[in-house]
Amino acid sequence: MLRLDAAGQTVRMDISTDSPPDGRWMTLAELADVRRISKASAARLMRRRRWRRQPGNDGQIRVWVPTEADKPADSRPDAVADIRADVMEVIRPLQDAIGALRLQLDEANARAAKADLRADVLRGRLEAAQQRLHAVEAAETARRAKGRWARLRAAWRGD
Q1: Among 101, 73, 75, which residue's Cα sits nearest to residue 87?
Q2: Cys-Cys link to 159, which of 48, 72, 96, 154 (CB 3.0-4.6 A)?
């Protein structure tokens, strides 16, 4: 295959490799073994780094892994920085979500406190109304306990 370089010169390329020379094709299982991580973590790494992938004839996905990335995470000098960056990439959205949830919780607690105060006021009014009702019922029961003549005499006297 022929290709033009930056100076406009024709450069012959080997068509057997359609990928840059600084990496290799690996299955997810191989990547997981080499980096000493799970297959799920290898798949997440492949998606996060947007590495090129293609299905193999055996049904397994092959990933183009750059040379510096095919070493175990703990053997690379920048492993801690990479891990910290990956962790912070996950933690930041979670911290933002926690902050938003805390605000919502504070608002809900404030509304609940107001509702509790109103319920206490209404409960007090209800108890006072029930006491007045019981007093009226007791007075009516006592009035009816007297005979008709006694009630007429009490009404005549203004009792």
Answers
A1: 73
A2: 154
**SS3 at position 45:** helix
Q: What is the pTM of this model?
A: 0.37
Quick one: 137 and 96 in the same domain? Answer: yes
Distance CA 103, CA 100 (A): 5
For residue 60, give its domain range: 23-76
Phi and psi based region of residue 157 (left: phi greater than 0; alpha: psi -120 to 50; beta: remaining): alpha
- Domain assignment present for residue 15? The answer is no
Domain membership flag for residue 69: yes
Query: Which residue from 33, 26, 16 is spatially nearest to 62, judged by alpha carbons?
Result: 26
pLDDT by 10s per residue, the chain, length 159: 555 566 666 655 544 445 556 888 999 898 888 888 889 988 998 899 999 989 888 888 899 988 877 666 555 556 677 788 888 889 999 999 999 999 999 999 999 999 999 999 999 999 999 999 999 999 888 888 888 888 888 889 887
Type of residue found at 45: L
